[in-house]
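Section: Multi-chain targets

For targets with more than one molecule, the full set of components is provided together so that the structure can be written out for the assembly as a whole rather than chain by chain. Components appear in the order listed by the source. The example entry contains two components.
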Amino acid sequence: MEWQTLAGQLFPDGHAITEQDHFLSGSAQAGGQTVAIIGTTGHAPIGIEIALAQAGAVLRTVQQHPGRPILILVDTQGQRLRHRDEMLGINSYMAHLGKCIDFARRQGHRVIGLVYDQALSGGFITSGLIADACFALPQATIRVMGLPAMARITKVPEERLTELARENPVFAPGPINYLRMGGLQAIWEQDLAAALLAALAETDAQDRRMALGAERGGRQLAQAVAQRVAQGEWQGAGQGAGQGAGQGAGQGAGQGAGQGAGQGAGQETVQAMAQGGAPAVTQTVPQTAGTGGDVRPA
Amino acid sequence: MSSYLELGARQRIPHIFDADTFEEFLPPSARVVSPHLAQLDAPVSFDDGVIVGRGRLGGQPVFGAAQEGGFMGGAVGEVHGAKLVGMLQRAVSEHAHAVLLLLESGGVRLHEANAGLIAVSEVMRAMLDVRAAGIPVVVAVGGANGCFGGMGIAARCANTVIMSEEGRLAMSGPEVIETAHGVEEFDARDRALVWRTTGGKHRYLLGDCQLLVADDTEAFRAAAIGAIAAAHESGAALTLAALQAEHDMLARRLRDFGDAGDPLDIWARLGVPDPNAVPMLEADAFLALAATHRAGPGAGGQ
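Its structure, encoded as tokens over all components, is:
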């Protein structure tokens, strides 16, 4: 969707949003209050300039308009994949943007993310995913990478991934899967202006994504694991299972005994599957051949 | 002296934390594994590639984590991420003195694509919750797999990043970039270029890491203790002034080096007399050189 069309539907009372080099900024009226807008358009790759521009807009909002809600409009193909961006420390620019948004949240700004077109990987992590809550339009595309590229890197046949993606939200792109996993608070089907007002009224600064993922069945372990770690609940069940398997990992309870299980498995597998997967500079380690996550087919 | 680089995550912990003080949360004996790997016929690990827990560091109660580069490159899946988040939450509720993260990760674990992506963002928010509670977060990067992808972003959400010159910190790996834009854009086989672009010395000169140490567990440990004390001194939480200073630093970097073609050009512009010699310098000699040639004041953690 064109951002102008979107802005018209979100803000029937008017807006002053401008676009410069795929960077959106400005303000708009929503239900009698002014909302600060930052975002991107044209499936922009997020390079260091646009990350810094967004961070600047957030800082200015915090300084000049305390408490003003912030709406992040997300349309990105992901982080810009250039040597120059890496050389200049794109991760620092992205982290800076994320920290500015987080700071705004703690200063009492509500921060809402809206994926109105595309959201990918690194471009999403410090925009919609760091908002208080993120929403999407039904036709939005959200993913880490395409299935063909994922197949190449994970060495799992594409047909198998396609088959899995039908039932498992982890592998398939799209807003419904992110909704099930708790990554999205809701999908805005119609009357965007009303949906935005409701979101502004209902959202708070608590990160509830794990709980939502568990409730909705899309991420069944995250919430339980975080809770067990946070509350120290594992002794009972864990010990028994560990002893049953009798692999050394069971008894040591982490006092260095885990090698057998933990690392052994890894050594056989490491073929680099990670998003940023990079070649190991030294040869002392299991190889990390990864071509990395954000590879998209040309 | 013991090489940090050559140790696995489980071996690093007793070298970095005070001896016999680290208690692991949800240890391998609990048998909590990734729910997604089996259907891809990929092996699982009983710690899902990360050790989380609490111990003492310099006598103080410090919570921590160590990512295992030997299991899927340290990449973050659903369980791996949730363990980190749970530990960070507990650090807040138990008023930890600090959190120390020994990061070694390729970022999002592609086998758990969407779940991994959300998990990394949850880790970032949880790290910033810790800082908002006044608890310093310190990151160490010195493993052979580097710290990439979303974890490269997360690292920079810490108060302080400690690197060795062998450590690498960036976002997209060289091979990702080469695949997207060709070998002319970034030759992933050119080890020297990869190192210049992502390695500890370049990151230190630019201000992306605040402390550079030799590849030695004792040096990492001492640096972590110092960084935690310094962060308590200056305040662990984000402030507008610190974010503004970081903003200015990043804007200056773009202005001064935005048209540079190679890190060697950047080092030359920083006034380094013989940029080609930088890769060969030992840590001490490098630090002496860097003392007068690092980018801008306040090239520090925010």
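DSSP finds 14 helices and eleven strands in chain A.
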